[in-house]
Amino acid sequence: MGCTYMSEWNHFVTMKGTNHGIVVYLDDQCSFEQVLQELEEKLTSNTSSGNTEISIHSQYRYLTETQRQEIEEIIKHYNHLSIKSIDSYVMTREEAHDLFEKSTVKTVMKTIRSGQIHSVKGDALIIGDVNPGGTVEATGNIFVLGKLRGIAHAGIEGDVQCIVAASFMHPNQIRIANKISRAPDYDVEGSPREFAYVNPTTEQIELNQMQHLQKIRPNLLDVFERGL
Amino acid sequence: MGESIVITSGKGGVGKTTTTANIGTALALMDQKVCLIDTDIGLRNLDVVLGLENRIIFNLIDVIEGRCKLQSALVKDKRFDCLHLLPAAQTSDKNEVTPEALSDLIEQLKPDYDYILIDSPAGIEQGYKNAVAGADKAIVVSTPEKSSIRDADRIIGLLEQEGLSDPPFLIVNRIRKHMVDSGDMLNVDEIVSTLSIELLGIILDDEDVIRASHHGEPVAFQPNTKASISYRNIARRILGESVPLMSLEDDKGFVTKVKKLLGMK
Fold first, then answer.
1. Which of A37, A112, B65, B197 could form a disulfide with A134 if both were Cys (CB 3.0 to 4.6 A apart)?
2. A167: domain CATH number?
3. Is B11 annotated as a binding residue?
């Protein structure tokens, strides 16, 4: 009897040590309450006390935001544990659609004029100029095949890896994630083929010549990586 | 069936009204039937520039509110039989007109005229919306100043959403050659490259224009000033002729000509 009891428990939560730390697999067929209950049991019986990062994997169970919070609550009780990530094999249609949107390039063929705001999910490709007073916003990168003389805001949802590239760079402002840089108060000429990125050491937006882009952002085109 | 063209700019004081009066006059000189509509309700002045102020009996609002017939509100120009003006009201305000009302009115005028020029008020509010509603084409007037170009850019952006038959055309007004040469004013190429629309014409900043407006006689009526030639060239381009842009360079004074004759230059 005791034996059956144990095996049933074992079935719902499995811990595995990997090179990247402990991965906790949650069964995706039983009820969520059973998972929580067993997770708690497992963690209490866990005797190790060193600081550990754990990754949670719910396999083919879709976790709602509240369910994720419930898991996080349980982990919080154990001071030596922290959550590295919560993953699963599934996502909702909305999330999939959002991911798709954010990993595609949105192209327009027009001039973004003063007072106009061109806002896209994903990367923005503008075939035309962005005039002074005009704004381009994107969750991803911004590429301007023309003169960028207005405002470009890349990574509006907070991705500091995003860049702004233009055939001719003469912007009012460049914003990447929550960083802002503006043109100097003296007259500047603007320069051809440049891109702007956030330098991780200075944490400031910097301009660089296009030929250095490959070195600075080698993974620029791995859009799915970024979307996730 | 006539064509309606709105003349607009966003910024005030760049010469919309003067341009409307002069293009109207130039078109009339070429035997076109032209009707000018002043939509700057409350601040009418197209009639003043044309010298027709004294002849106004009814106005646009009277027509729209049914107090008179459309025909009786039209003021005939004192120089041309084929140039008519529908004046704005001086006492009402812009919110008394709806875009639909103005658009209907223009449809009624179209069969009788070759061109209907609509003078728009400054700004992008109700008055602008009224003016643009009935237009088939648009002309954007800008001076070579940064603020004016910024507003012109804004207006072009708004006009692109209006479903006009062509993208708007550009007139660069009040060019001061010596300032362009010294780099204190943008040159025409820079303006056209920023706004990226087709250039319909350029007009030099010329005292003749101010003098003519002062006397209520559009400069386009004069035979030989630079400004009048520019306006007539614009009218010819509207009629579909291809006329090269006037050169800014041939601005030679009497002394230079004499010097040249004497072989001193």
1. A112
2. 2.160.20.70
3. yes
Q: B154, A129: Cβ pair inside 8 Å?
A: no
Q: Does A128 touch chain B (CB under 8 A)?
A: yes
Please write the tens of the pLDDT for every residue from A43-55.
Answer: 887 766 677 888 9
Q: What residues have CB less than 8 Å from B209, skipping those under 6 apart?
A: B15, B18, B22, B203, B219, B227
Over residues B147-169, the mean pLDDT reads 93
Are residues A145 and A116 located together in one domain of the fold? yes
CATH number of the domain that residue A26 is part of:
3.30.750
The helix/strand/coil state of B202 is strand
Q: Please write the tens of the pLDDT for every residue from A5-16.
A: 444 445 788 888
Those residues with Cβ within 8 angstroms of residue B21's Cβ, 6 or more apart along the chain or in another chain: B36, B46, B49, B50, B213, B218, B220
User: Quick one: CATH architecture of B3-261?
Assistant: 3-Layer(aba) Sandwich (3.40)
A114 part of contact set with chain B, CB < 8 Å: yes
Q: Which residue of B has its CA nearest to A134?
A: B154
The backbone region for A122, taken as left when phi is positive above 0, alpha when psi lies in -120 to 50, beta otherwise, is left
Q: Considering CB atoms only, which of B153, B160, B196 is closest to A114?
A: B153
The per-residue pLDDT for range A55-94, each reduced to its tens digit, is 999 999 999 999 999 999 888 888 788 888 898 999 999 9
